[in-house]
Structure formats: C-alpha cells, structure tokens
Specification:
Mean pLDDT: 79
Order of helices and strands: HEHEHEHEHHEHH
Strand order of the largest sheet: 1-2-3
CATH superfamily of the largest domain: P-loop containing nucleotide triphosphate hydrolases
Number of helices: 8
Strand content: 5-15%
Helix content: 40-55%
Low-confidence stretches: 251-265
Largest sheet: 3 strands, parallel
CATH class of the largest domain: Alpha Beta
CATH architecture of the largest domain: 3-Layer(aba) Sandwich
Length: about 260
C-alpha cells in the first residue's frame, strides 16, 4: 500500500521475477460485472488455474475495487455482485494449503476502505507500505529516466533530485519528458539545466501563456498605478507604508490597474 505511482505493481513483478515462478496479474475492476455471479466465477476460474501451475504468485492490483468494506446488517446493499465477488475471494484464500505454494499479493492506495476480513491473519496480514521516494531514490529514478538521453555538463541530477521533493516515479518521468520537449522546441538534442527548470515550472505552475506577458505600455501603466498607491500609503502612515505594491507576474490573470488604465500623458 502507498500513494499512487510509487511502484507497487513494479515491486510485485520484481518479486515474481526473483522467485522465478508463474505470475498472474489481474486488476480488481476486472472481476466486477453487472450480472450477478460473473465476478465470483472469474475468481474461481483464476484460482483453479493458479493451483494447476503452483508454485505461483497471484497479484491483484487495485484490490479496493472489490475489497471494500461490506455493508452492515440492516443496510441496503448497493452492489450485491461486488460483495459476492469479495466473498468468493475470501473463500478461495481460506482454502489454501501451505504446501500448495500459492502466494497472493495485492496493491491499493486506499487501505482504509478495505474489508477487515481481508486483513485478518491468514489472508493479507502482511502489509508493506511503500512511501514516496527520498532524495537518493529520486536520484536513482532520474538516472533510469534519462538513460539514453544526452545531458549537458550543466545538468546535475543531484540538484534536480533536491528540487523535486515529494515527487513520485511518475512525476519524475513526466519531468524527464517535459525537459526533452523543451529541448526539442529549442532545436537542441542535448538537455541543459534550463530545460529542467522550465519543465519543473510548467508542471507546478502550468503552461506559460504568451497572452499573459505584459506589453510595454501595460508595464508602464502598472508602474504608475503602484507608485501612486505607494505615495498614498506613505502619506497616510507618515512615511511608513503598510500596503506593499503588487508584483505583477507572468502567469495567471494579466495584472492591470484597478479602475482602468490612467492617462499617461
């Protein structure tokens, strides 16, 4: 369990590769159908095939799709098909013989909604939390995503890793793609440090629009307006202005003087 894009599915595949056994990967939503009984039948067929090819590993991705907490007694059941599928999964996991060699793994980023019966001993009693990558892990992830790309000498992946705290593996992959796009737009085959900076700003702040750049006459109008505000603030407070001037930025809504543009002549 853990936040999205932290590598839960990749970790399950790595476990299967290290174990050198058959690997069955399914998603929780693939068991849910409109017709009652279809999902339960799919669970039975899956585990029957797994037992034939044991030892094997079964991986259920996004198990919260079928493993949500069941309704309490007296409440209206919203999805009887989903509950039947969950009941069948619980029954299949109860029937495991330790000698069969079948291991069931599951992944979710919403462990709080899972049914308690799934988490009891003998089922999913071992829980591994995968957090967002730290500095060293982000550095290693960037090396993977920039493998095969030409980097300028100004690029320091340690600096890029420090500038991306709280980023997941998917976020870092997106950063690599945006930096490569910036380099292509500039007609270069080599990525420089400025490409990373622009890519980070685009991901965090959004795309820089050309219409948001102030024209020279607009800059002068804003400067005159803010200077007048400063003079008024200083006069009212005896020279100690408490209303700092606004800093018009290149992003978001275009900065413009309140009450219209004054005459500059």
């Amino acid at each position: 369990m853990g936040p999205p894009s932290t590598g839960k599915t990749l970790l399950a595949r790595a476990v299967a590769g290290e174990a050198a056994v058959p690997f069955f990967s399914v998603t929780g939503s693939s068991f849910v159908e409109m017709s009652v009984g279809v999902g339960a039948a799919r669970v039975r067929d899956l585990f029957a095939e797994v037992r034939k090819r044991a030892p094997a590993i079964v991986f259920v991705d996004e198990i919260d799709a079928i493993g949500r907490r069941r309704s309490s007694s007296g409440m209206v059941v919203a999805n009887d098909e989903r509950e039947q599928t969950l009941n069948q999964l619980l029954a299949e996991m109860d029937g495991f013989d330790p000698a069969t060699g079948v291991v069931v793994l599951a992944a979710t980023n919403r462990p709080e909604v899972l049914d308690p019966a799934l988490l009891r001993p003998g089922r999913f009693d071992r829980q591994v939390t995968i957090p967002l990558p730290n500095l060293a892990e982000r550095r290693a992830t960037l090396e993977v995503h920039y493998r095969g790309k030409q980097l300028d000498t100004s690029v320091d992946l340690d600096v890029v890793a420090r500038d991306t705290p709280g980023s997941s593996g998917a976020d870092l992959a997106n950063l690599a793609n945006e930096a490569a796009i910036n380099a292509v737009r500039a007609g270069r085959h080599v990525l420089c440090a400025d490409d990373f900076a622009q890519a980070r700003d685009r991901i965090i702040l959004g795309r820089r629009g050309g219409s948001n750049v102030l024209l020279p006459e607009e800059k002068r109008a804003v400067a005159v307006h803010e200077a007048g505000r400063r003079l008024l603030a200083d006069g009212r407070s005896g020279g100690q202005g408490d209303d700092p001037p606004r800093q018009p930025g290149p992003r978001g809504d275009r900065a413009a003087p309140r009450g219209g543009t004054p005459s500059l002549r």
